[in-house]
Every structure is written in C-alpha cells, then in structure tokens.
Amino acid sequence: MLLSFCVGPRTFDPGADARCKSPMTRGGGKEGAQGSVAHPKFDSIFVPQDYDPAELILRGSKVRHKSLPQQVTADFHSPVIKYIPGFQGPLPFELTTGYVGVDESEDVQLFYYFVKSETNPKDDPLILWITGGPGCSSFTALAYELGPLYFEQVAYNGTLPSLISNPNTWTKAASIIFLDLPVGTGFSYGRTPNASHSTDTQACSQALQFLKKWFISHTEFLTNPFYVGGDSYSGIFVPIITQMISNEKDAEASIEPSINLKGYLLGNPSTFPNEKNFRYTFAHGMGIISDELYESLRRNCGLDYHKSDSDSAECSKNIEAYELCRSGLSKVQILEMKCAEPLRRSLSYEKKTGMDKFGNHNNPKSTLSGFECRDDGYPLSNDWINDENVQKALHIRQGSVGSWRRCSKLSYQFLISDTRTYHANLSRKGYRSLIYSGDHDMIVPFQSTQAWIRDLNYSIIDDWRPWIVEGQYVGYTRTYSNKMTFATIKGGGHTAPEYKPAECYAMFRRWLSYMPL
Questions:
Q1: Is-above-0.70 flag for pTM?
Q2: Residues 36-78: tens digit of each pLDDT
Q3: Of the residues 117, 232, 381, 437, which is catalytic?
Q4: Around 414, how many Cα atoms within 13 Å sit in the side-chain half-sphere?
Q5: CATH fold of 1-68+76-274+368-429, please?
Q6: A Pfam family for this UniProt protein (predicted)?
Q7: Which residue in 65, 197, 218, 494 is the catalytic one?
Q8: Is 494 an active-site residue?
Q9: Which of the following is catalytic: 196, 439, 441, 448?
Q10: Is residue 137 flagged as an active site residue?
C-alpha cells in the first residue's frame, strides 16, 4: 500500500519531524495514519516496504517512462537578465530563468535559474544542480553555496538586501542549471492538486523530461560534457536521474535530443536507510561521547552497517545519554554556535522573530537585529526574492505561487530509501563520480558515506592522502577504479561549499578537469 503525506524539507536534518497538518492527498489514509511503516533512514517518514521502483529504473534499455511524451516541446525562458535589484551595476555573468512544463498535460511547471560559465560556455561542462530537502529551492545553492552571488551578511534594516559577487563560484568552471525540484519547491508549481503531489520517482522522471525540453531550446549545449549534481537529500535524486539519462542513451529508440552524460557529483548525500547509525560513530570519533557509551550503544542497539535495534530498554537509555551529549551542538556543523536551527525553531523563537522552523518569515519583513548565527542569514533570501521588483526582474509568473519560501512543505511520497544499487550500476557503465563530505557534518557523517563506497568493492587506484590548497591540508581523498573520487573537506558542514567555498571550488575545478585533487 502506498501512503502519501505532507512533509517539510529535510536539507538540514533528515531526522526531524516535519509532517504538516494537511490531509493525505493519495492513498486514502488519514493524517499520520496508524500502522504506517517508519522509514528506516529518517525518524518520521512513512514509506511502503513492499514496493521497489528501483526495479523499473534499473532494467536498462527497455525502460520507458509512461509519463514522458514521445514529442517534447521547448521551454519558456527569459531574455538574458542584465540587472537585478540589490546588485550594484550589471551582472558579471549571463543569467536567464524559465519554466518547463512536464507530463502530458504540462500541469507541472518546473522553474530554473541558468547561469552560463564565466570562462568558456561553448566548451565548459554543464551541470544540473538540485538542492536537497526535499523542498528546498535551488536558489539556496545559487546564493549561499556555489553560485555567483552571495547576500551581504548584514542585518535587515528595512531596505532590500544587497547581493555581492562570490569569488569562488563554480560557474567559473561550468554552466549550471539550478532547478527547483520537486514540484512545489521554490517557484515550481502544479496547475492542479494532483499535479502538485510528487514522489521520488515522479520527480526524477520529471527532471528527465525537463532536460529534454531544455536542450531543445539550448541545442548549443548538447555537446558539452554533462553532469548531475546535488547535496543532502539529492543523494536520492541525483543517482536516479543519472540512471534515467543513461537508460535513455542505451535505449534502442532513444528520444532525441541525446545528452552527453559524463557523470555526477554529490555532497554529504543521503544514500541508504541506516545512515544515521554512523552518527554515533561520528560522535565517538569527535569526542562527543565516551568509549564506554559508544560500546554500549553498539552492544545494546545492534548498530552496524545493515541494521539497528532501538526497541530494547537498554538501547533507549543509551540513546538518551547520547542525546544529552549531542543536543547542545549544531548538527549541520558541530563547531558552529548552536542556534535556533531552521528545522528546530521553537514557537517562542518564531513569535519573537516572525520566522518559522524552516528559516522562512511569517511576516513580510524580518526583524532580526544581527547575525550572530549563520542561520540568521537565510531569511535574507525571503526578504529579497519576495520583492515585487525582484520577481519582475526574474520573470516570475505572478500568482503561480504564494509567498516564496527557501524551503517548502510538500505533498510527497518517499518511495526509494537506498540508492547504492544506482551507484553500482553507474560505475559499471563507466560514469565518473565525485562524492564529497564536509567532515564536521553530523547529519550525514563522512563515515556513512565511506561505508557505502567501500561496499561497492572497487579497488583503490589512489590511496588515502591529503589534498592541498595554497599549501594547506584542506581534506583527504581517495580514488577508486570505478572512476569514483571521494573527498573530505576539513571543517566543512552539511552543505560543504557554504562553509569552505574556496576549498570546494578548487576541488570541483580539479575534478571537472580530470586532475587529481
């Protein structure tokens, strides 16, 4: 039985309980239906146990997606945007935005920002970037992580927030499509209630449709090396989308246009159900919990790569002790100040600041007096992008969504909890991959990523070593015979480029150029 429910974005904490108050839109159940099976990867996600859509996606050349029209049409995109409110002077890069209708009726309208490479767009690689959540806009990556703009980090004073250039933008080395996916994310919207609902597999199929239509209007990029990228929950989306593109290329009657797929890249990616077990390993390694508590957790909770057992009283007691040691830390980057994180904002904090638990404003304008916490800079995106003149400059369809939110609640079904099979299949097909981990992220710890990579059982061709930027060790890396490179970013958090922009840009540029890190 398939269960449907509303869910909040999980970019920062896949374990947070973010069920919304609206009723289920499919499956006939009531809100929070009893008897739902808890998703083993997240604390409060409900998924079926007897449904494996991966079988449909991994069958290779015979896979055909019924929702993909045989005839695809071009997308609507804006003219080049030369000026945007809040940025001084003309933009030093080429920006366009647009909508692409997907599914047969095109009732799903996917919105994107496209930034051309600032170096050599004719030949530089093209990246499709999807931010995690699910439900967090790709504008998060554009303005806080790896795009050409940053918000000036000053308190809101009643005027429009200011934007400045990011000297470490990844668009110096590649053109990037920042896609709002799934439907309901950012400016992507559904024309009907049914179209406004999505699943893991639907979202990925719609991303494939998006790409085919986008390339019809941008044929000059068909020969560019193409990669799919993302972070956090996009560890589910990215391998599936890459697999779907590969399947289309393998199909006997492949639908044009053909995409020049080369590989994919992922940061701190959600990958398999028992990832959270490695939070205890991480906590032990970082000195957050004692040797004795760690051994007791392993003994009483059955923590290993494949399973866990949290039903016993001894295990519950150990987890309580662990939470006592961990609760005062920021899970997205344990060295940063513990603040009211976007997924954990209390009601009193919401009343005080006008901000909800996702870092969105309930009031039109923010009232924060300063940025003592990194999280306090996120509402600048709401203040800026909800401005009428900004939306005109970005060619937003007025009335298509309500107030824009950086991270939105979605009507969504989680169908796939494990993407290791996709990584293995893509490796067999010879695609390149870069998997990187901010080494101070406690949500998807680097140990869990190392574990599933190790499970692929490929030989090592460049063993564990430091990688260096400007004479300094900035992380550690290892390369495998399946063309997979793993790298840690020293001091990086859950979204590593946000915390270590120069180091991550160096990593990206080297890998993209087939250079060793």
A1: yes
A2: 223 333 332 223 333 344 444 554 433 333 333 344 455 677 7
A3: 232
A4: 33
A5: Rossmann fold (3.40.50)
A6: Peptidase_S10
A7: 494
A8: yes
A9: 441
A10: no
